[in-house]
Amino acid sequence: MISPIFFRKAILLAIFAVCGCMSSVASGFTLVIDPGHGKQDFGAVGKITNEKSINLAVALKLGKLIKENMPDVKIVYTRNNDTFVPLQGRADIANKAKGDLFISIHANSIDKRAKNYRTIAGASVYTLGFRRSEENLAVAMRENAVMKLESDYSTTYEGFDPNSTESYIIFEMSQNKHMEQSIEAANEIQKELVSTAGRKDRGVRQANFWVLFKTSMPAILVELDFICNPEMERFMNSESGQNKLATAIYNGFARYKAAEDKRVGNATAAPKILTAKSATALNDSQEAKATRLADSGNSKNEQSGNTPIIYKVQFLVSSKKLSAGSPKLKGIGDADYYTDGGMIKYTTGAFESEQDAAQRLVEVRKKFPDAFIIKTQGNKRIK
Ligand SMILES: [Zn+2]
Questions:
Q1: Is the pLDDT of residue 261 over 80?
Q2: Is it the case that residue 291 has pLDDT exceeding 60?
Q3: Which DSSP string corresponds to 151-210?
Q4: Nearest residue to 283 (alpha-carbon basis) of 244, 229, 340
Q5: Is 226:232 a contact under the CB 8 Å cutoff?
Q6: Is 57 helix (H, G, I), strand (E, B) or coil?
Q7: Which residues have C-beta under 5 Å from ligand 1, the single-atom ion?
Q8: pLDDT tens string 190-235
Q9: Smaller CB count within 10 Å for the chain: N or C?
Q10: pLDDT tens-digit readout, 309-344
Q11: Can you say how many angstroms the Cα of residue 273 is from the centroid of all Cα atoms in its chain?
Q12: How far is the CA of 56 from the centre of ligand 1 (A)?
């Protein structure tokens, strides 16, 4: 027979156990969003923009969608502006926040000498894992290389050398406790990047990223698309492209979380799935305005073929071609040019809307007060 005191204790224990469980349910889900690179670390660089800017823009849009549609999810950013956070620092932030999922956002690129440098396209979501693949190792090496920007990287990263193949053996010896959930999340987001954001499917992959290795929670790294491909770069640089990408990651996350809730026995409603259309609607007014601006310029050029109209900021005319680092360019790193009447005309930026170009113009005029916006098609100025 059980003594009444023991029985009371047992009931109390049972109540405590239930309460403990309940409180963890009530505390909700913490998502850590990690926009790759920042400040002096530009990540991969394209013709009109760079990786750190794309990553941050998509990350902030993703956070906004989650805040609006899944208010019970707590969001922690590793950075929410243009600052430099070391790889280990990102993992530390995620671990301190006791994240339930870590999503690192990046844009891909390949070796400049590769034949398909300008044509390679597609999204892939990575999880941590040791599969011997040259291609995936190259991506991990590029993303891990940022640790070399830290003066004491050898100490912080335990002697790990991001450029040495042998260094990657440490990953082989570690256990990945969160592999299944990470792959689950990666699968959901990968599917959405294809269906909602219209990206070419490069599949879920495994590689050894330090930032995934050191986060003690399910963790994935999204490579949105290739910045070295000008068409994909324009997509990732545009408002509508960024909205589609953020919506895709949001949808994938919503599906993953709903499945997770079900698995641990938290009864929740079906995931709220957004359509790419409603994502575009986020910025409808802004885009309509940009289109009106473009139309008011000269509408007959809009119909000449499929080559897109691109706005650039012209800042300098020269009788001969300048070297890339010429002081005459006053440090404008992405300077491009077209030839017109035997002169070399230097431009910077490439924007789908005049409005975006106007933002750049303000910056450029600090160095070149006479700079102005031009409209181009196939690298020729049009009126
Ligand atoms: Zn990156």
A1: yes
A2: no
A3: TTHHHHTTT--TT-GGGGHHHHTS--TTHHHHHHHHHHHHHHHHHTT---EEEEEEE--H
A4: 244
A5: yes
A6: helix
A7: 36, 43, 106, 143
A8: 999 999 999 999 999 988 898 898 999 999 999 999 999 999 999 9
A9: N
A10: 788 899 999 888 888 778 888 888 778 888 888 888
A11: 20
A12: 11
Q: Are 7 and 1 a contacting pair, CB within 8 Å?
A: no
Residue 193 CA to ligand 1 center (angstroms) comes to: 17
3-state secondary structure of 147: helix
**Taking a C-beta distance cutoff of 8 angstroms, is the pair 362, 304 a contact?**
no
% of the chain exceeding 90 in pLDDT: 48
The identity of residue 99, as a single letter, is: G
Contacts of residue 154, Cβ cutoff 8 Å, sequence gap at least 6 = none
How far, in Å, from the CA of 223 to the mean position of ligand 1? 8
274-277 contacts at long range (C-beta below 8 A, 24 or more positions apart): 274/65, 274/69, 274/247, 274/250, 275/196, 275/247, 276/196, 276/197, 276/198, 276/243, 276/244, 276/247, 276/248
Q: Which of 120, 134, 116 lies closest to 226, judged by CA?
A: 120
DSSP H or E segment with residue 293: helix 284-297
Least confident of 171-185, 252-266, 279-293: 279-293
Is 331 in a helix, a strand, or coil?
coil
